[in-house]
Write a structure and sequence with these properties.
Blueprint lengths: L1 H20 L8 E7 L9 E10 L3 E4 L13 E5 L4 E3 L4 E2 L3 E5 L4 E7 L1 E10 L5 E12 L5 E11 L33 H20 L7 H10 L4 H27 L2 H9 L1 H18 L9 H10 L4 H15 L1 H15 L6 H22 L12 H28 L7 H19 L16 H17 L25 H15 L28 H11 L3 E6 L4 H11 L2 H10 L1 E6 L12 E2 L6 E2 L2 H13 L6 E5 L16 H16 L1
Parallel strand pairs: 12-13
Antiparallel strand pairs: 1-2, 2-9, 3-8, 3-10, 4-10, 5-9, 6-9, 7-8, 10-11, 12-16, 14-15
């Protein structure tokens, strides 16, 4: 048994370290800035705009003064014309390098480290306003990658009420409102979800205290600090050491969590999701008492010996010893938090671990500072094991979330929403019966009566069961949006049956929907709430031109939790549904679908130079290259030429904001 638990613990440690070593980030090789030679110019003055390109090492920027037919994208500017200025000269590069390129079979000009271009402008009015976009292409000698890039600027004087120059942004931002810091797995930007995640991690930290591995350690630890000089200072350092040790786990994982491309693969690929499912099952079995996940005794003994040397050095290793000794109880909890943070914001695992560790270290620090409070602590007993078992049921329920993601992405159809709900109902019923003493597991103490806290908790659990039951028959269960599979993956949905009957009645009466049939990929993808739409960009554009409606473009994903939340909480509003049905051609592009494309539909990305062979890879590349965004959900309103009409919208559960967004799109389309 020792060898098995040692192998499991080492495997888990290897997993976390291995995941943290993956580091591939979205590349932003060029940063643009610009300035006017005279912001206070008067009518008749000729001024100069200077554009600066800061280029990362290992990359170069193509200039503007070589044959455009060679192949590379030239750096170009496009001015939005108005009557306040006119172009007075050529767009001129300043001292670019020149060489013969064997690949393109011709002379090219380029910049390294820094590029500079100038443009002369004649001012015609006092309140002049110059709107300009600069675009080009940057490539790397080291990786062979080439990336299209661009930036928009607005220049003007004080009377025009615009800033002299827009803020500098990264090279991939062609629109000033674009490219929010959100991962491709569907997690929101840091400010949107980090607090909720930290609160959850803090609660997990409090729960870890009341486990058999940790709770008995409190009086032993406190007695150490109260029986020596400088005990209170050392107690504070002890608590901070615990926070620092756990925080280090988050720091190690942070590069992975903030990387969109890796996060997308981890969130949707079957290998990590099956692996996480297996790990969570192992965590649950451990909490149920089947075995213990412990650190190797040699490591624990070695660290414990260093804690005997005295001083603050020994205090740190005492904290380290506590972390190692309590690993059989805290390891699964820490693993849960770290796995849940993969694919989130860059700082998510760091903040998650700091929140967990703060709660975990709190009682050790407080009771060391105020030992008199120890009298109010409950005695150790069988209730501590009950805390572990309850956490085991939570781990078991969470495990199926990862299996559900794989089922959605690969279209297995095994774990539809009603099946998932049934599993959760079964787990919740078993948890309720356990709390009432009807089920006993190894290491549980005999229970003759049910304590009031257990009775209250059991009541909450059974109330949750009653909430889940309607979900078997098609109820949306909005509280669990983004966790359960979407409503479109439901074996038996009463609402869907009613909608289908209404549609059949409409068709039989001659009331046909405005659609182009057959819908490409219609056998793979489905829209929620009975909506009709397309899953191929070209087909949606053709429908927009034929029926004279704008396009509602939804960049989504099978593993995108916030996409499901938007669909269940915003799209479901009758006003939103009406506008989507009547005013728009709906286009949903899944960025994580692994369905292979025929070779004739493969594309070579201008973003990373790789060949995109699946529906998801092609759609994700389209989102990045055309809309400069890698986040889902991401909503764009397009005209019949496929051009964006108004600024795009991301995750926002405010229904009124979404209605305003749709209304503005219709107004823009009519203009």
């Amino acid at each position: 048994m020792y060898k098995i638990t040692k192998l499991i613990s080492l495997t888990l440690m290897f997993l976390f370290v291995t995941l943290s070593s993956i580091n591939a980030q979205l590349i932003n090789p060029v940063t643009w800035s610009a300035e006017l030679s005279n912001p206070d110019a008067k009518p008749g003055d000729v001024i100069e705009i200077t554009y600066h390109a800061k280029i990362k090492d290992g990359w170069y920027l193509y200039s503007s003064d070589f044959d455009p037919d060679l192949g590379p994208m030239l750096t170009e500017v496009e001015y939005k014309p108005n009557n306040t200025y006119q172009i007075a000269g050529e767009f001129t590069p300043i001292n670019p390098k020149k060489k013969y390129d064997e690949l393109w079979e011709g002379d090219i000009t380029y910049f390294k480290k820094h590029g500079e271009f100038t443009q002369k402008i004649k001012i015609l009015k006092d309140d002049f306003k110059i709107e300009v976009g600069i675009s080009g292409q940057s490539c790397s000698d080291e990786t062979g990658q080439c990336i299209p890039l661009g930036k928009e600027f607005v220049f003007g004087n004080k009377d025009a009420k615009v800033s002299t120059v827009t803020a500098v942004s990264d090279s991939k931002t062609n629109n000033t409102e674009e490219l929010k810091a959100v991962s491709s797995s569907g997690q929101p930007a840091e400010g949107e979800s980090i607090w909720g995640f930290m609160i959850s991690a803090f609660i997990f930290g409090l729960a870890a205290i009341f486990t058999p591995c940790v709770f008995p350690m409190i009086p032993l630890t406190v007695s150490f600090f109260t029986n020596q000089s400088g005990g209170k200072a050392k107690a504070l350092f002890y608590g901070l050491s615990i926070v620092g040790i756990y925080g280090l786990f988050g720091v190690v994982l942070a590069p992975l969590a903030g990387d969109p491309s890796v996060a997308n693969a981890i969130s949707t690929h079957w290998i990590p999701n099956i692996l996480f499912f297996t790990i969570f099952i192992i965590f649950a079995m451990s909490f149920f008492g089947m075995f213990e996940i412990t650190m190797p005794s040699s490591l624990v003994n070695n660290v414990d010996q260093k804690s005997d040397k005295g001083g603050f050095f020994s205090v740190f290793f005492m904290a380290f010893t506590l972390v190692l000794v309590s690993f059989s109880c805290t390891g699964p909890i820490v693993g849960t938090i770290l796995i849940e943070s993969v694919g989130g914001a860059y700082l998510k695992p760091i903040f998650g671990m700091l929140a967990f560790a703060s709660a975990f270290a709190l009682p050790f620090t407080i009771f060391a500072l105020f030992p008199g409070l120890m009298k109010g602590l409950p005695k150790s007993g069988g209730w501590l094991n009950s805390v572990k078992v309850v956490l085991g049921f939570v781990e078991l329920a969470l495990a199926f979330k990862f299996l559900s993601t794989v089922d959605l992405v690969y279209h297995w159809g095994i774990l539809d929403k009603d099946i998932m709900v049934a599993i959760w109902i079964a787990i919740s019923i078993m948890l309720g019966l356990y709390l009432l003493g009807k089920i006993r597991l190894p290491h549980d103490s005999p229970m003759d009566t049910v304590s009031p806290p257990r009775l209250i908790l059991a009541t909450i659990v059974f109330a949750f069961v009653f909430y889940l039951i309607p979900g078997l028959f098609g109820a949306p269960l909005k509280m669990l949006s983004g966790i359960l599979p979407p409503q479109t993956h439901h074996t038996f949905d009463i609402n869907a049956i009613v909608r289908q009957e209404v549609e059949n009645a409409s068709i039989s009466s001659g009331e046909q929907n405005e659609m182009l049939y057959p819908v490409k990929y219609g056998d793979i993808f489905h829209l929620p709430h009975g909506l009709k739409g397309y899953f191929d960009y070209n087909q949606a554009v053709a429908a927009s031109k034929k029926f004279g409606k704008p396009i509602f473009l939804d960049f989504t994903g099978h593993g995108c939790a916030n996409c499901r939340k938007m669909e269940d909480n915003v799209w479901s509003d009758p006003r939103v549904l009406q506008k989507l049905k009547e005013d728009y051609i709906i286009l949903a592009l899944y960025v994580d679908d692994p369905t292979k494309l025929p070779e004739s539909e493969w594309i070579t990305s201008t973003f990373d130079g790789n060949v995109k062979k699946t529906i998801g890879a092609k759609n994700f590349d389209f989102q990045i290259t055309k809309f400069n965004s890698n986040a889902q959900p991401y909503y764009c309103l397009l005209n019949s030429d496929g051009d964006k009409m108004i600024p795009a919208k991301a995750y926002d559960l405010n229904v009124e904001n979404f209605i305003e967004f749709l209304d503005n799109g219709v107004k823009s389309f009519k203009k």
